[in-house]
Amino acid sequence: MMKHEDVEEVYVYLMHNGNTVITLHSYEVKGKPDTSGNSAVLKLVKDDEVWVRMGTGALHGDHQRFCSFSGFLLFER
Questions:
Q1: What's the first-to-final CA gap in the chain, in angstroms?
Q2: What pLDDT is stored for residue 63 in this prediction?
Q3: Which keywords are on file for this protein (predicted)?
Q4: Which residues pair with 29 in a beta bridge?
Q5: CA 7 to chain centre
Q6: pTM of the complete model
Q7: Is the predicted pLDDT of residue 48 greater than 90, yes or no?
Q8: DSSP code, position 34
């Protein structure tokens, strides 16, 4: 994620079925962007839900794709 320059602090959460798996935090004075990243490997079953929840602050969300979320199937049972 890339924090927007208009805010000082950003919190973003990776969620799995309503539970927080990872918390991303970024702090930098206004006027400066800051980045943060993380990864997780989750054991999922059918109908599980995984999403990114915005906490506080603001992120860049333009055509340059500074913020992204992706998932990959590592193996099937």
A1: 32
A2: 67
A3: Extracellular matrix, Secreted
A4: none
A5: 17
A6: 0.82
A7: yes
A8: E
